Amino acid sequence: MIERATRLFALWTLLGVGWAWLVPEHFLWVVDGSVRPLGQPLVSVLLGIVMLGMGLTLSFADFARVATMPRAVAAGVAGQFTIMPLAGVSIAYALDLEPGLAVGLILVSCCPGGTASNIIAYLARADLALSVTMTLASTLIAIVATPLLTGWLADKFVAIDRWNLFLDMVSVVLIPVVAGVLLNRLFPKVTAAVSKVSPLISVLAVVLIVAAIIAKSRPLIEAHFGVLMLAVLLLHLFGFGLGYLLTRLLGFDEKVRRTISIEVGMQNSGLGSSLAAAKSFAAQFPTPVQAALAPVPCAISAVYHVVIGSLLAAWWSRRPTED
Length: 323
Description:
The chain is an all-alpha fold.
């Protein structure tokens, strides 16, 4: 039952976003600062729960698996941090996006793959072990790569504090993931029980983050609806499409092509939303309006990538590959 509910993350995302759009006041408490567990912003805490849940499902063997498939992992991670960031900055310039939207689009394009990609890979009959390994590798590399790439590519729009962004990545990504892995190692029976529900909790946490940002940003979304939806759609079409085409040119088999396409095309939008919504990140913008625009592409990204990924999974699931 729990596994089936987890696989319906695309449905939960759409329902959550639709609910937030129609009744935004039901979700504003997530981002208005009224709820601060342990004195921390609720969005950051929710993301920490997501990353902790990821860590609970990992073991040291998962880290060692990177060495067993180096070529595929290297190709996927390279695609993750070249195709998407270059597509993000190119789209921002081509559509002449406002600084807030441009920085938000670039930020989410520089984020690692999301854990939702593992579910899509499973449904699409792709290489699930490779998907999990790539998500792990790109998440760890992103701790350094995301601040550096975002600062470099978004610098024309606003000066990004790379060091502060790096510290945010450490606190909301590295520490929870490492904590989860250590808990899995030290208390395997307990974490095995928790791991049965942690993926569903992670999905619901991401839906809550995305829905809250949609609720808060509804007037801004309405004001920039056309260009915003086009920009994020193009970003993910480039990710899925080029991820598949380039791996085909490199001679990978069909299962690997599907996996890398999914990993490149699906970003950790919850991470992007959380980073963009942080007060320290917002303080870098010259006006509050531009700061408020930055999390919006990240939230819209969450909707697009689960919809496109789910459609691809439905298509590919009917086309078995050679095992």
